[in-house]
Amino acid sequence: MDPHVDTPAAPLSPTARKLRTGFFAVLALLAALNLVVHPHEPHFGLDAYPGFWALFGLVGAVVLGRVAKGLAHTVLGRSESYYDEKSNAKS
Question: What is the pTM of this model?
Fold first, then answer.
């Protein structure tokens, strides 16, 4: 079996759907409040745009997650027959 084949995700439970919807609603509310409430003076150019820190955090989290997953697959990943090959080499 190829480890890079995408399998469909398991469906979410009703509780998980409500929680996910709640998180997205809070994120949307905070981004909308950022249009009205300006918390501080901008320190550099991009900091002046509304929603910059929300977008920065989202992009940072996605990049960190992808990098961690990629490293885990390349460094920690082994083929399905890894232990069979290892035991055959000792024999």
Answer: 0.54
